[in-house]
Amino acid sequence: MSAPLTPTENKTARRRGLTLIAVAVVLVGIGWGGWHWVTGRHFETTDNAYVAGNVVQITPQVGGTVVAIGADDTDHVLAGQLLVRLDPADARVALDQAQAQLAQTVREVRGLYANNATLQAQISLRQADLTRAQAEATRLQDDVNRRAPLMASGAVGKEEFQHANAVVNTAKSTVAAAQAALLAAQEQLAASQTQTDGTRIEEHPGVLRAAARVREAFLALQRMELVAPISGHIAKRGVQLGQRVAAGAPLMTVVALNDLWVDANFKESQLQTLRIGQSAELEADVYGNKVKYHGTVVGMGAGTGAAFALLPAQNATGNWIKVVQRVPVRITLDADEIAEHPLRVGLSMDVRVDTADQSGKTVSDTQRSAPAVTTSVFDAQMQAADEAVQRTIAANLGHKPSAQARSAAVLAAAPRPALH
Q1: pLDDT tens, residue by residue, 359-406
Q2: Helix (H, G, I), strand (E, B) or coil at 351
Q3: Which of 121, 129, 133 is CA-nearest to residue 186?
Q4: What does the domain layout of the chain look like in residue ranges?
Q5: Average pLDDT over residues 249-276
Q6: Among 36, 232, 294, 309, which has the minimal tally of Cβ within 10 Å of its Cβ?
Q7: Computed over its alpha carbons, how large is the radius of gyration of the chain?
Q8: 288: helix, coil or strand?
Q9: Order of strands, sheet of 244-245, starting from the edge strand that comes earlier in the sequence
Q10: pLDDT band for position 9 (cuts 50, 70, 90)
């Protein structure tokens, strides 16, 4: 057995141990201080961050009864794919009525143009009648002028001369009547031309008004089928078969899981070093620290979450306790990383932003040169409506074949001599 330590040796050993602990604490402090100065002070972290994305609500533009549902919760759909079909019976009837009205309007406008030709022919006829009446009145007046000297010598009787004057007066009345008839025909043509001048049948206001009704009815029929505006996954389906839905009623949502971002809520004391364009490293609770996501700060909120809350804080009333506010910071994610490790809207994230680069701005001053999100699935609807209008108009224009075409048709219908 070893001899027990003396009080002096115990004191020396205790001092040596405390010295080693102090040295270790100092070394750890120096190491942590060096790490913080070189690296740690250039990072801002938060666990108050959540995945966000475009959640598109599907709502009908017209009311109707649901007759088919093309997708259910968790289904993946492509842009333009059928989601809900409403009963199209009423819309189809309205379209038939609008097309019939357009056809009738086109034929009525054709009648206006045809009436112009008829009135023009009547003017020519009235002009010919006037010319003939004027010629006859001139001839009769010449006869009276020749007989006036003969009446003094007794070669022409007074009764005959008076009869000739009466015939001249009647001819003058006929000329006046022909002039009035010509003027009436001209005014009637002018009145008719006010409805057709400067336009074609297809561009007549009546035809355009009826065509607009056809487009409206055609679009209403097409809107009986609700399609996905973007590709994504179905969520929150609440519509059922046979349900009567009104315009604007939410039926389901489409979530684009390939285009996600993170809203990280940093404390107001952390915003001093945050800049747009800084890189970020993120971890999702669903995968843990085994999966790292990389993103970029693209913008900061225009206000704190409390400022835009449904019931904002009223700090000017009652007792007041200061609460650290948070500002949402948007961070984009790498699309390839999302494809490899899919995320869901609302998942929790841990965010670590590298703030070493201070060249960026805290407030974005750039303006978008293009829409943030677009869809083209509805463009074909208006084009199809225009085509339906053009078909209806063309079917009722009734264009007559040209003289060459009529001659060709006559020759084709004529019997051909037999060949011997």
Answers
A1: 888 887 778 788 888 888 888 888 899 999 999 988 888 765 444 444
A2: strand
A3: 121
A4: 91-201+391-398
A5: 93
A6: 309
A7: 47
A8: helix
A9: 225-227, 82-86, 64-69, 244-245
A10: low
Structure tokens at 351: 């965010």
Q: Tell me the pLDDT of the chain averaged across its residues.
A: 82
Using the 8-state DSSP alphabet, how is residue 264 labeled? E
Distance of CA 263 to the CA centre of its chain: 29
Decide: 278 and 297 in contact? Cβ < 8 Å.
yes
At 170, give phi and psi (nearest 5°): -65, -40
Q: Is residue 86 classed as helix, strand or coil in its secondary structure?
A: strand
What is each CA distance from 249 to 60, 75, 84, 87, 413, in whole angstroms? 7, 21, 13, 16, 62
Please check the confidence at residue 7 and state whether its pLDDT lies above 70: yes
Return the DSSP state at 41: G
pTM, entire model: 0.70
Helices of type H across 81-204: 89-153, 158-193
Tokens of 222: 């097409």
Q: What's the rounded Cα separation, in Å, for the pair 333 and 337?
A: 8
| Residue 4: strand, helix, or coil | coil
Alpha helices in 253-398 (DSSP H): 335-340, 379-397
Q: Which two tokens stand for residue 175?
A: 């000329």
Q: Residue 27 has which token pair? A: 């070394």
Residue labelled with tokens 């007792």: 319
Name 42's Cβ contacts closer than 8 Å, sequence gap at least 6: 273, 354, 355, 356
Task: Report how far residue 109's alpha carbon sits from residue 203's, in angstroms, rounded to the nearest whole number.
Answer: 10
Q: Which two tokens stand for residue 398?
A: 């009734």
Give the span between the Cα atoms of 70 and 226, in whole angstroms: 9
- Distances in Å between the alpha carbon of 157 and those of 150, 151, 170, 243? 9, 6, 20, 103
Question: Are residues 252 and 83 in contact, defined by beta-carbon separation less than 8 angstroms?
Answer: yes
Cα gap 110→133, rounded to integer Å = 35
- Dihedral (CA of 408, 410, 413, 419) sign: negative
Task: Find the helix or strand (DSSP H, E) in which 211 lies.
Answer: helix 205-222
Question: Burial level of 260, CB count in 10 A (0-12/13-18/19+)?
Answer: buried
Helix (H) or strand (E) holding 37: helix 7-38
Mutual orientation of helices 379-397 and 205-222 as an angle, nearest 10°?
140
